[in-house]
Write a structure and sequence with these properties.
Shape: globular
Distance between the termini: 28 Å
Number of strands: 14
Largest sheet: 8 strands, mixed
Oligomer: single chain
Length: 230
């Protein structure tokens, strides 16, 4: 079964009923963008790998300004018939399920009432958790920097018989990204794509630990057929 390109930030996933995933499998593209800028305070506030204290107001301002100064992914990942305007920069292009690394802190650009904001991950930000159809979908992580997934574990609730690792069809960690040409001949990127996530992972949330330049971050994924609602 060949997975299709994921829906974009402005296009809804129309699959709703159990079994719909197999009719239109999706390869979820998750961008990982690393913010490297002078003046960040996150690293000095951290107790160590995986134990950051969140973004300070200064970190958020620096992160947002850095993303606004970065070009959007090129070429734009758009489906035919899309009518929304093309993003002007990376800050406008990122989805809540994309990952922004600020120091050691996983964060996402979220759509709030007051507009788009860069927010650290916590258990209240359910829109930042990627929801994936099992026995159908795959996940492709892309980054301009070399990375690997060093650990996968069940998070939050632990459903009986759900696998400890939903990527079991891809072997065991670490999963190392490989460098390849970007979409349609774009610049070189680092990429790793999972196998199809199994039905035994239905309704289970998972936390992956990524290593990028020696730093560890840990965003979440939740599986289902259909996936649980936010």
């Amino acid at each position: 079964m060949t997975a299709a390109v994921t829906t974009t930030d402005n296009e809804a996933d129309l699959r709703v009923a159990r079994g719909d995933g197999g009719l239109n499998p999706v390869n979820h593209i998750v961008r990982i963008v690393v913010v490297r800028a002078p003046g960040l305070e996150v690293a000095s506030k951290s107790d160590g790998d995986g134990h950051s204290h969140g973004l300070t107001d200064r970190d958020r301002e620096i992160g947002e300004a850095t993303l606004m100064g970065m070009p959007p992914p090129s070429p734009p990942e758009r489906k035919s018939g899309a009518t929304s305007p093309e993003p002007k920069n990376m800050f406008e292009a990122l989805k809540p399920t994309d990952i922004v690394v600020v120091g050691r802190e996983p964060a996402s650009v979220r759509k709030l009432k007051e507009g788009r904001r860069l927010c650290e991950h916590d258990d209240r930000n359910r829109d930042t958790v990627l929801r994936v159809w099992t026995d159908s979908d795959t996940i492709e992580y892309r980054c301009d920097e070399e990375f690997e997934i060093v650990e996968v574990e069940r998070a939050g609730w632990k459903i009986y018989d759900a696998p400890e690792n939903p990527f079991e069809r891809s072997g065991t960690p670490p999963y190392r990204a490989e460098q390849r040409q970007g979409p349609t001949g774009g610049k070189l990127i680092w990429s790793w794509t999972s196998g199809r996530l199994p039905a035994t992972a239905n309704n289970q949330q998972y936390k992956m630990t990524f290593k990028i330049k020696g730093e560890l971050i840990d965003p979440d994924v939740v599986c289902g057929d259909p996936p649980p609602l936010p």
